[in-house]
Design brief:
With about 700 residues, the chain is mainly α. Helices cover about 65% and strands about 0% of the residues. The chain contains 32 helices and five strands. It has helices at about 10-25, 30-40, 45-55, 60-75, 80-90, 95-110, 115-130, 135-150, 155-170, 180-195, 195-225, 240-260, 270-285, 290-310, 315-330, 340-350, 355-365, 375-390, 395-405, 410-425, 430-440, 445-455, 460-475, 485-500, 500-515, 525-535, 545-550, 570-590, 625-630, 645-655, 660-665, 675-690, and strands at about 550-555, 565, 600-605, 610-615, 615-620. A three-stranded antiparallel β-sheet has the order 3-5-4, with no helix packed on it. It is extended and about 105 Å long. The protein starts with 10 loop residues before the first helix and ends with a helix. Mean pLDDT is about 85; it is low at about 555-575, about 665-680 and about 680-693.
C-alpha cells in the first residue's frame, strides 16, 4: 500500500487514507500529521483515545506529549494533566515540554497559599533536569523575574531574597545557552542596583567565568543548529536515509564535544551531567539505535568506577543506579526485542551481584508475550551460560530442557549444550548423547553435521569419527547430495591427517563417484586433487594457476547455502567465467550517476503557489529551503506590517539614482565643505525616501 497522501482528496478522504496507512505502517509521519491535525480540531473527550495511541507509539516525543497536555489543559482537566506530567517529565527531557510544565504550574497554582514555594520548587526541578539545555534561557530568566517579584518584609527577608536571586544569576551566567549575554547584562544591572561599590568587585570576579561560558555558548549553538530535536523516534531505514544519517552524525558530534569538557571545568560532575543530558536528548529521537543506549550506560559505569577509586561510594552507587535505570528503560521501550541490550543489562546486574534481577531479564527476554523473539536460540544459549555461572551445571541443563521444548529454537542450542558439558562437566558421554539427540532432529542440516564432525575429529577417537562420517553419508540419511561435497571435503581432510594412503584413495574414489552422479566430474580431476594437498590457506598452486584452473575458494559463514569450493564444468566454461569476471571488474570501476539528490515525483492536481510545479505534479523544495520552511513560524502568527510589493517595485522603478561615474570623474580637490554637506544631505534624503516606501 502506498504511504503517500494524495493532494487531490477531500479532508475526510485524507483522514481515512491516513488511518489506513497508519494501520499498516505505524511509522509514516505524514499520515500521523493529518490525524493530529484532525484531533486538535475536536474536543478532548473525542480525541483522548487517539492521543493515548499517539504517545504509546511515540513515547519519547516531547512534541506529542505537549500536544496531548495542551488539549487537556484546554478542557480544564487539570487532574489528568498532572498525571500526564508524572508519566513523561522525568523520561522526556524536552525543553518545550518542561516550559509547558512551568507555565501550567504558574497559571493554575497562583491562588494557593503555598504558591511561592511550589513555583520555586518547580523552577529548581526544571533547572536540575534541563537547566543545561541550550534553549533554557527563558527558564532562567523567568525564575529570576519570579524571585524579584516576591515581596520581602523586613531586612532579613530582603537579604534572603537578594541571596536567592544572586544564586540563580550566578548559576545561569556560567551555563552555556542562547542569549546568555542578556542574562549577564541583567545580572550586572541587578548588582549595581543593590550596592554599586560591591557590585564592581563581584562583576569583575564573575566576568571571567561568564566569558568562558559565552565562548562555549557560540560553539554550542553551532552544534545544535543542524539537529531537529522534535523529530519522532522511528526505526532506522535500510539503507539509512540521508537525513537520518545527518541527524545521527550531528548528535554524535555534540556528544563527543560534551565529553571533551569544552567549559574546561574542574568539576567532573558538571561534565557528567552535560554528557548524560546530551545522550538522553539524543535517545528521544534515535531510541532505536542500540549502540547509543549501550554507550551511555557504559559511560556511567566508567564514571562510577572513577568515583569508586576515589573512595566516594555514594556517588559510585548513584551512577550505577542511573545506568540500571537506563537499561531498564531501554528494554521496556525501543529495545524490547533487542538481545544485545538485554545481554549487556544482564551482565551488568550480574556484575553487581544482582543474580535474581539478571535471571528476570533473561526470563523476560525468552517470554513470547514480552520480547516476542522470532529466533530465541542465542538468548537460550546465553541464559544457559548465566545459569551455569550462577547456580551450576544442573540449572543450565534446565534451561536446555526448556529450549528443546520451544519450537522457535534451532540446532545451535544442541551444539552449545554439548560443548558446555564437554568443557565444564568434562563428560564426553553426555556431550556425545546431546549431539546424537540433535542429529535425530537435524540430520539434514549441514551446519549441525559439520559442527558434530568438528567435535568428533578433535576427540582423537578415529573410529567414532569414521562411524559418524559413514552415518551421515549413508544412503539411509536423507541429506541432499548437493550438500554432500562439503562433508566429503571434511572426510578427506580427516583421512589426510590420521589415515593411511589407502584410506585417502578410498575417500577420493567415493567422492569422485558422487560428482559423477551429479554430472560434475568431467574436467575436474585436477581440481579434486588440489583438495588432497591443501592445508588451511596453503594451496599447491599459485593464485594465477588456480584462476586458470577455475578453482575458487569461497569461505562462507552458512555452509548450507553453498560449497566452499566452486568448480566449472569444463575448460571452455572456465575461460567464459574468467572473461565474465573480468567484464564485471571493468564495470565496477566505471563512473555511475549520483542519484542521492534526485527528488521524488509527487503527482498533484492543484499545486500550491510557490511550489516547483511541472506538468502533472510537483517536486519538493531543496533541502536548504525545506529546512527554512520547517523552522519558520506558521503564517498565521504574522500580523503585519505587510508590504505591498507592487507599490514598492513601482516606486523603485521611478527612483532616479545618480550614475556612479558622477562621483569619480570630478576631481577631489574641487569638493569643499559645502558640497560635502550637500552630498550628505542628498544621501540622507534618499535613505528617508526608501524607508518611507
Amino acid at each position: 500500500m502506498s504511504t503517500h497522501i494524495r493532494e487531490d482528496l477531500t479532508r475526510n478522504e485524507k483522514i481515512q487514507q491516513a488511518k489506513r496507512i497508519v494501520n499498516e505502517n505505524k511509522y509514516v509521519l505524514d499520515a500521523w500529521a493529518i490525524l493530529i491535525q484532525d484531533a486538535q480540531e475536536k474536543k478532548i473527550t473525542e480525541s483522548r483515545d487517539f492521543y493515548e495511541l499517539l504517545i504509546t507509539q511515540f513515547p519519547t516525543c516531547g512534541k506529542f506529549w505537549k500536544l496531548y497536555i495542551e488539549a487537556e489543559i484546554k478542557g480544564r482537566n487539570y487532574e489528568k494533566v498532572e498525571k500526564l506530567f508524572q508519566r513523561c517529565l522525568i523520561k522526556v527531557l524536552n525543553i518545550d515540554l518542561w516550559k509547558c510544565y512551568l507555565n501550567y504550574v504558574r497559571d493554575t497554582k497562583g491562588k494557593l497559599s503555598s504558591f511561592r514555594e511550589k513555583m520555586a520548587q518547580a523552577y529548581d526541578f526544571a533547572l536540575e533536569k534541563v537547566g543545561m539545555d541550550v534553549y533554557s534561557y527563558t527558564i532562567w530568566n523567568d525564575y529570576v523575574f519570579f524571585l524579584k517579584a516576591v515581596d520581602a518584609m523586613g531586612s532579613f527577608a530582603e537579604n534572603q531574597k537578594i541571596t536567592a536571586v544572586r544564586k540563580v544569576y550566578q548559576k545561569g551566567i556560567v551555563t552555556p545557552m542562547t542569549s546568555i549575554e542578556l542574562l549577564w547584562k541583567d545580572y550586572c544591572t541587578y548588582e549595581m542596583s543593590i550596592n554599586p561599590t560591591l557590585a564592581k568587585k563581584i562583576i569583575e570576579e564573575r566576568s571571567r567565568d561568564f566569558m568562558n561560558a559565552k565562548r562555549v555558548s557560540k560553539e554550542f549553538e553551532t552544534l545544535v543548529r543542524t539537529i531537529d530535536r522534535n523529530v519522532p523516534c522511528v526505526p532506522p531505514t535500510s539503507p539509512q536515509a540521508s537525513e537520518e544519517i545527518k541527524q545521527l552524525a550531528a548528535w554524535r558530534k555534540l556528544i563527543t564535544w560534551e565529553k571533551s569538557n569544552p567549559l574546561k571545568t574542574e568539576d567532573p560532575l558538571i561534565v557528567t551531567r552535560r554528557v548524560v543530558l546530551a545522550y538522553e536528548q539524543c535517545l528521544l529521537c534515535l531510541g532505536y539505535h542500540a549502540d547509543l543506549w549501550y554507550e551511555i550506560c557504559a559511560y556511567l559505569e566508567q564514571v562510577s568506577r572513577t568515583y569508586s577509586e576515589r573512595g566516594d561510594t555514594q556517588l559510585a552507587k548513584r551512577f550505577l543506579d542511573e545506568a540500571s535505570t537506563l537499561y531498564e528503560r531501554a528494554t521496556q521501550t525501543y529495545m524490547r526485542s533487542n538481545m544485545l541490550i538485554h545481554f549487556a543489562y544482564a551482565d551488568f546486574e550480574e556484575q553487581r551481584l544482582n543474580v535474581d534481577k539478571a535471571r528476570a531479564i533473561y526470563t523476560r527476554l525468552l517470554d513470547v508475550n514480552e520480547a516476542n523473539l522470532k529466533d530465541p536460540t542465542l538468548a537460550y544459549i546465553q541464559a544457559m551460560r548465566f545459569e551455569r555461572r550462577a547456580d551450576g551445571i544442573k540449572a543450565a541443563r534446565a534451561i536446555f530442557k526448556r529450549a528443546r521444548e520451544d519450537t522457535r529454537t534451532n540446532h545451535q542450542i544442541y551444539v552449545a549444550a554439548a560443548l558446555m558439558e564437554y568443557y565444564c562437566s568434562k563428560d564426553n558421554n553426555i556431550a556425545f548423547n546431546i549431539f546424537n539427540l540433535g542429529l535425530k532432529k537435524y540430520s539434514q542440516n549441514l551446519d549441525y553435521i559439520l559442527a558434530y564432525i568438528d567435535y568428533m575429529t578433535h576427540l582423537n577417537e578415529d573410529h567414532n569419527a569414521r562411524v559418524l562420517f559413514e552415518r551421515v553419508l549413508s544412503p539411509d540419511n536423507p541429506i541432499s547430495k548437493q550438500l554432500q561435497p562439503v562433508i566429503w571435503q571434511e572426510f578427506l581432510k580427516f583421512e589426510s591427517q590420521v589415515g593411511d594412503f589407502q584410506s585417502i584413495k578410498k575417500v577420493e574414489k567415493r567422492r569422485a563417484a558422487l560428482y559423477s552422479e551429479l554430472n560434475e566430474l568431467e574436467g575436474r580431476e585436477t581440481l579434486l586433487l588440489i583438495d588432497r594437498y591443501r592445508f588451511l590457506n596453503l594451496l599447491p598452486c599459485s593464485n594465477d594457476e588456480l584462476k586458470l584452473l577455475g578453482y575458487k575458494d569461497m569461505p562462507q559463514t552458512n555452509l548450507s547455502s553453498m560449497s566452499t569450493v566452486l568448480f566449472n564444468n569444463s575448460s571452455t566454461t572456465n575461460s567464459a567465467a574468467l572473461l565474465e569476471q573480468a567484464a564485471r571488474d571493468r564495470r565496477a570501476v566505471l563512473p555511475r550517476p549520483d542519484i542521492r539528490h534526485m527528488m521524488p515525483y509527487r503527482p498533484t492536481r492543484n499545486p500550491l503557489p510557490g511550489s516547483h510545479a511541472t506538468p502533472g505534479g510537483i517536486f519538493p523544495l531543496p533541502d536548504t529551503a525545506l529546512y527554512l520552511v520547517k523552522v519558520l513560524p506558521p503564517s498565521r502568527n504574522f500580523e503585519g506590517p505587510f508590504v505591498i510589493v507592487d507599490d514598492l517595485m513601482e516606486r523603485m522603478t521611478r527612483l532616479s539614482i545618480p550614475d556612479s561615474k558622477f562621483f569619480y570623474e570630478r576631481n577631489l580637490s574641487q569638493f569643499n565643505f559645502s558640497s560635502q554637506m550637500n552630498s550628505r544631505t542628498e544621501s540622507f534624503r534618499l535613505h528617508i525616501f526608501l524607508m518611507s516606501c
